[in-house]
């Protein structure tokens, strides 16, 4: 092999090395960008941030509404007050469905039943009432801060938000 051929071969190896480095850098950049999006707190719009549940008048007094994007139930009392319950069971974290005929939330995993008005445990192994999220009412819209779950030992009137 002549010296000229060696230079050509070396230069081909360098070219392939540059291609590999470029591909690796692109892959690394995509992984870093993906991680950044994944760990960045969701400040508005979905679970983990401030969720706009809707207009006050969309929630009838005496209603229980699941807001899927925020993973919470918005309960509106007959007197117009609101409370937001995290859908997550306080026992081992299963999603708790609302059962209208039972007028309660019942966890499918180990059977805890939570009162629909207070979120307190009426039976089952859960150690505390359903967690709540702070509510803000601005310009006729209900906002729920799903980034700040509140643990409770019991229900009290100061957990209810009025327009
Ligand atoms: Fe709900 Fe166990 S996770 S009762």
List its traits:
163 residues; alpha+beta; four-stranded antiparallel beta sheet
Explain briefly what this protein structure is.
This protein has 163 residues and is of the alpha+beta class.
Describe it.
With 163 residues, the protein is α+β, with helices and mostly antiparallel strands. The protein is 23% helix and 26% strand. The longest helix is centred in the N-terminal third of the chain and has 37 residues, at 3-39. The radius of gyration is 26 Å and the shape is elongated. The mean pLDDT is 89. The chain binds FE2/S2 (inorganic) cluster. FE2/S2 (inorganic) cluster (FES) binds at residues 89, 91-92, 94, 107, 109-112, 124-126.
Helix and strand arrangement:
Elements: H1 3-39, E1 50-55, E2 63-67, E3 72-76, E4 82-86, E5 98-99, E6 104-106, E7 113-115, E8 121-123, E9 132-133, E10 135-138, E11 141-145
Antiparallel strand pairs: 1-11, 2-3, 3-4, 4-9, 5-6, 6-7, 7-8, 10-11
Residues 89, 91-92, 94, 107, 109-112, 124-126 line the site of FE2/S2 (inorganic) cluster.
């Amino acid at each position: 092999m002549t010296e000229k051929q060696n230079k050509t071969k070396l230069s081909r190896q360098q070219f392939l090395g540059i291609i590999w480095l470029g591909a690796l850098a692109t892959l690394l950049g995509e992984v870093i960008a993906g991680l950044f999006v994944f760990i960045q707190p969701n400040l508005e719009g979905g679970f983990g941030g401030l969720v706009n549940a809707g207009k006050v008048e969309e929630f009838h007094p005496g209603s229980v509404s699941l807001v899927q994007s925020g993973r919470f139930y918005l309960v509106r009392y007959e007197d117009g007050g609101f409370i937001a319950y995290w859908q997550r069971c306080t026992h081992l974290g299963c999603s708790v469905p609302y059962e209208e005929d039972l007028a309660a939330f019942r966890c499918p995993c180990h059977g805890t039943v939570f009162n629909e008005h207070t979120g307190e445990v009426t039976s089952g192994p859960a150690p505390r009432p359903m967690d709540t999220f702070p509510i803000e009412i601005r310009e006729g819209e209900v906002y729920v801060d799903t980034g700040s779950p509140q643990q409770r030992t019991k229900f009290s009137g100061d957990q209810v938000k009025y327009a």
